[in-house]
């Protein structure tokens, strides 16, 4: 069995080009790959392409030898063969572990694509010495940086088809699709014609287990770029930024004292502290061809899956088409599942995201002994920093249960319970 890997060496070189300006691992990069058999591996990181965006980081690690690369000259290596070569290197144990993880992710994805097991997958281009050296160098850079958390943006994939030894494959190729699905990587297709995300690139991202969110309260320490040599309709770059916490800022002289604010929002100080404030994600989508019954079912599923609130608003779209705007409030951990529900349970083909800050009242559940029976209530308290204010609301579902038990009209039960609550509070 063979794997597909278009330009594997170029893909991993992209990543190293963006990482080397952030590290001091020049010597480690040289020594880590030196024990490998002779290969055509060069770290000459002049970051240029046709978009005239250049960063020259002269970094040559030539391993000279004379051999010819024909149309299919790479040896076919198994996953264990690749592991053995990685073990021969002088990279640190954490770097070796990360490099092996990258190849293991590719092997699992290729095995699924071919209906076999990872141990039976034979790498050709990805298993070449150049690519192994590159993935090792990538791992050495990551290890040298001693990173606590990795953040990543959505993977920007192209569209169309690509020719490989298996024939004509759609983009993204099966291995990339398998990696994206297995590791829940966000992927946006259609940036331009051609393959922008290869199995090696996707595996590198997956191996780092990044957060696909906006880092908060951070400053940029250094930036590196990896520029591709292929000419696409849009610039082809990988950008890496080393971030650190904001320290030593003179907040006294900062306008509006916002120096300590989150990178994306306001510094609300004590009035925004829990339980009187939090961060929420807002998902929105315009829907113009889904029935009211399906929208009602969609709301139920979203709430059951962890949405904090779901609402619909009447709007008019292009060509004066009446539609609804779906708005979902949720916490960050719920975004992937709620997005999946929106896109599969409605006619929506896209979801917009925004991060919101909220000031809220502290909420506590309780019970109130009314003349009609015990009713569940919600006690809401204003942040003391803003003043003294408290409201107690009867839960409507509890009122309905009492109305059913007493066989009294629902509106009469609601009015009586609310009146008794008001009298008790005042």
UniProtKB/TrEMBL annotation:
UniProt keyword Oxidoreductase present: no
Pfam families: Ni_insertion
Annotated spans, Disordered: 56-76
Keyword flag Cytoplasm: no
Keywords: Nickel
InterPro entries (alphabetical): Ni_insertion (IPR002822)
Protein name per its UniProtKB record: LarC family nickel insertion protein
Organism: Candidatus Anaerobiospirillum pullistercoris
């Amino acid at each position: 069995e063979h794997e597909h890997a278009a330009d594997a060496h170029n893909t991993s070189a992209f990543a190293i080009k963006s990482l080397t300006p952030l590290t001091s691992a020049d010597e480690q990069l040289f020594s880590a790959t030196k024990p490998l058999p002779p290969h055509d591996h060069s770290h000459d990181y002049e970051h240029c392409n046709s978009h005239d965006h250049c960063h020259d980081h002269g970094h040559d690690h030539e391993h000279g030898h004379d051999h010819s690369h024909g149309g299919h000259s790479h040896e076919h290596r198994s996953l264990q063969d690749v592991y053995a070569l990685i073990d021969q290197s002088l990279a640190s144990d954490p770097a070796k572990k990360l490099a092996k993880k990258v190849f293991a992710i590719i092997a699992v994805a290729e095995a699924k694509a071919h209906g076999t097991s990872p141990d039976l997958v034979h790498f050709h281009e990805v298993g070449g010495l150049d690519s192994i050296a590159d993935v090792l160098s990538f791992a050495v850079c990551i290890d040298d940086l001693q990173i606590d958390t990795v953040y990543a943006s959505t993977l920007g994939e192209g569209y169309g088809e690509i020719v490989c030894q298996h024939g004509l494959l759609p983009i993204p190729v099966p291995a990339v699709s398998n990696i994206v699905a297995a590791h829940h990587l966000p992927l946006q297709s259609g940036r331009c014609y051609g393959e922008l995300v290869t199995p090696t690139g996707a595996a590198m991202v997956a191996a780092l287990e990044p957060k696909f969110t906006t880092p908060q309260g951070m400053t940029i320490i250094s930036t590196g770029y990896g520029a591709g040599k292929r000419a696409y309709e849009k610039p082809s770059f990988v950008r890496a930024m080393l971030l650190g916490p904001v320290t030593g800022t003179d907040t006294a002289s900062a306008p509006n004292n916002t120096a300590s604010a989150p990178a994306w929002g306001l510094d609300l100080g004590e009035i925004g502290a829990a339980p009187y404030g939090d961060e929420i994600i807002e998902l929105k989508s315009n829907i113009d061809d889904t029935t009211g019954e399906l929208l009602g079912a969609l709301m139920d599923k979203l709430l059951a899956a962890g949405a904090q609130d779901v609402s619909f608003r009447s709007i008019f779209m292009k060509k004066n088409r009446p539609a609804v705007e779906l708005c979902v409030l949720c916490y960050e951990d719920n975004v992937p599942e709620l997005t999946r529900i929106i896109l599969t349970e409605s006619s929506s083909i896209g979801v917009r995201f925004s991060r919101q800050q909220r000031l809220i009242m502290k909420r506590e559940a309780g019970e109130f002994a009314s003349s009609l029976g015990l009713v569940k209530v919600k006690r809401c308290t204003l942040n003391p920093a803003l003043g003294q204010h408290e409201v107690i609301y009867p839960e409507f579902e509890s009122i309905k249960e009492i109305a059913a038990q007493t066989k009294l009209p629902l509106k009469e039960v609601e009015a009586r319970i609310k009146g008794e609550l008001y009298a008790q509070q005042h």
